[in-house]
């Protein structure tokens, strides 16, 4: 028992988050030099990977579809914390940061994670198989949330510019929370089987068929370490954010590209988890992660930002531009055509990945 405990405590998934938090304490409030930025960034990446590991341990313990929710909520906590901290210190140039980050998260999940999962699933068995009823309902919820929160503000007239009035923002926040809560109830309750992996014949796979679930003690330890990892990710990301913004300026990229970088960072755990699931022929779990992350990114982030606007100064720009709305519409239409059959080939995965490439390219060169 003592040997197992020592081995556990000396594991990199334990050491790296603790060192990342220690580094956060030592560097908090300081202007970082070039080499120190690289050190903090390295521990930041390590904390992200540790968060993936511990979230998967907890997910394995609680089972699907609850497991997918663990990582989705964890990633949203990171996203909200980064947006709020940067908006507090960024001034006018961060008025659209919430919109840019949330939209980037939606495009990365619906095209990047989903496309990569389908590609890996199709490479493994020729055709990626998943449950269209659950995935279709999730996609419909994401499309509704994205339209209400990111498209409608462009056309409202109560306030100048693509922004909500306080009453409209409150309605969008409540509606987002209600839809997300309803989806979670459906996913974890009455229609839980819609979100479980399926065989080629459509039969639900209740058990993963791999290692036995971890003990409650191990799962609780991983939960604590997951929280520590998330604190390290948020804090260290805040420490290196000035360097990120400076790099964006030096590269002559638009300020909105900061949102893309934040989304890429916070979605790294979900991407890795989805890739692992797809390689194990559990494409449905990958889709749960992709669609759940997109949903949480809007359904939880927008209400949190709306609440933060009580003490944040300046307007909150949420409405998308014409190019962004076009990409969102194309993504939703393509997603519907991909999800409805419940089966996908390399072609569908490739189409979504090309859409992601188009988004990143146009974000860098609008």
From TrEMBL:
Keywords: Membrane, Transmembrane, Transmembrane helix. Residues 36-188, 222-362 form the Sodium/calcium exchanger membrane region domain. One of its GO terms (molecular function) is potassium:proton antiporter activity. The chain crosses the membrane at residues 12-29, 35-54, 66-90, 102-123, 135-155, 167-186, 219-237, 257-275, 287-311, 317-339, 346-364. The keyword Zinc-finger does not apply. InterPro entries: Alkaline_pH_Ca-Antiporter (IPR052946), NaCa_Exmemb (IPR004837). It comes from the Bacteria. GO terms for cellular component: plasma membrane. The keyword Transport does not apply. It is found in: Membrane. Pfam families: Na_Ca_ex (PF01699). Its main location: membrane. It is a multi-pass membrane protein. PANTHER family: SODIUM-POTASSIUM/PROTON ANTIPORTER CHAA, SODIUM-POTASSIUM_PROTON ANTIPORTER CHAA. This is Ca2+:H+ antiporter.
């Amino acid at each position: 028992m003592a040997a197992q405990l020592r081995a556990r405590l000396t594991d990199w998934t334990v050491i790296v988050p603790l060192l990342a938090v220690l580094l956060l304490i030592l560097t908090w409030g300081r202007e970082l030099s070039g080499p120190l930025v690289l050190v903090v960034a390295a521990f930041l990446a390590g904390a992200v990977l540790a968060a993936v590991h511990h979230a998967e341990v907890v997910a394995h313990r609680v089972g699907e579809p609850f497991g997918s929710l663990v990582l989705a909520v964890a990633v949203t906590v990171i996203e909200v914390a980064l947006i709020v901290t940067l908006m507090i210190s960024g001034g006018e140039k961060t008025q659209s940061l919430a919109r840019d980050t949330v939209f980037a998260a939606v495009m990365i999940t619906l095209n990047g994670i989903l496309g990569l999962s389908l590609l890996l699933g199709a490479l493994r068995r020729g055709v990626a198989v998943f449950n269209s009823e659950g995935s279709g309902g999730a996609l419909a919820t994401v499309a509704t949330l994205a339209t209400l929160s990111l498209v409608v503000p462009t056309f409202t007239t109560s306030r100048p510019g693509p922004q909500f009035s306080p009453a409209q923002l409150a309605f969008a926040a409540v509606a987002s929370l209600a839809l997300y809560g309803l989806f979670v109830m459906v996913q974890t309750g009455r229609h839980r089987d819609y979100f479980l992996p399926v065989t080629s014949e459509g039969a639900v796979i209740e058990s993963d068929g791999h290692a036995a679930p971890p003990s409650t003690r191990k799962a609780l330890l991983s939960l604590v370490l997951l929280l520590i990892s998330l604190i390290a990710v948020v804090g260290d990301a805040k420490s290196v954010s000035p360097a990120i913004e400076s790099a964006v300026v030096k590269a002559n990229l638009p300020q909105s590209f900061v949102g893309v970088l934040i989304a890429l960072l916070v979605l790294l755990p979900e991407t890795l988890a989805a890739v692992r699931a797809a390689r194990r022929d559990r494409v449905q779990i990958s889709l749960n992660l992709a669609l759940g992350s997109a949903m949480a990114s809007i359904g939880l982030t927008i209400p949190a930002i709306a609440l933060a606007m009580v003490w944040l100064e300046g307007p909150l720009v949420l409405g998308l531009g014409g190019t962004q709305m076009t990409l969102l519409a194309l993504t939703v239409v393509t997603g519907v055509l991909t999800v409805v059959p419940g089966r996908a080939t390399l072609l569908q995965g490739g189409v979504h990945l090309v859409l992601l490439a188009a988004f990143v390219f146009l974000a860098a060169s609008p």
